[in-house]
# Entry
Amino acid sequence: MTTPASATAVLRSIDDLRGPAGRLEALLNGGPPDAPYAVLACHPHPLGGGTMHNKVIYHAMKTFHGYGLPVLRFNFRGAGLSEGEHDDGRGERDDVRAALEWLDREFRLPILFVGFSFGANVGLKACCGDPRVRGLVALGLPVHAEGRDYRYSFLPGCTQPKLFVSGSEDQYGPVLQVEAIVRTAAPPAELAWVPGANHFFVGKLGEMQQAIGVWIETHFGDLKARRSAEL
# Structure
């Protein structure tokens, strides 16, 4: 009998996650011993106040954790108590790779990725093509935000299952531009719009979680029976 996810909701600080810039502050929401995947979650732009405690990434964590999966969140270099300095997305890709290495060592399980905004862009770049990563979820895919342009020329070579979830009123990812980017992605790639939601899914976090859940159960059917009653 599968252990209910709610029975293994142990949150602990991680002290041994280190990237090239030093220690990365991290939290792990644990899962049962028979969890079939581990999950990595990446937060939005640190210069905009983004940390692993961001509401969008927290609710994304809750969704995956509700399927009985351990979820690792961490602060990019220079954010929170993480060492180092912000590096405009370049060094942050190495932070993602360090987190993947930690998850691989800790669990020896295939990995699912979820990132929001800046975390989606950086995480997709680091995870696409990595054989350890079996699926990718990008929330609030940014195109142009606060003077920063985001590029996705790597997506045609990204063959893992991918889900893009954005709000129809996303100020940093207009509908037509996001649709054009997703069309360049190698299949399978799905785009789910949350009607009326802005970039931060204010008032629409439940709809965002529902879109993730549908994708999980479509592409990772073995997780359906593990779904927590909390979802």
User: Anything to note?
Assistant: Helices lie at 55-65, 90-107, 118-127, 175-184, 205-219. The chain has one domain: 5-226.
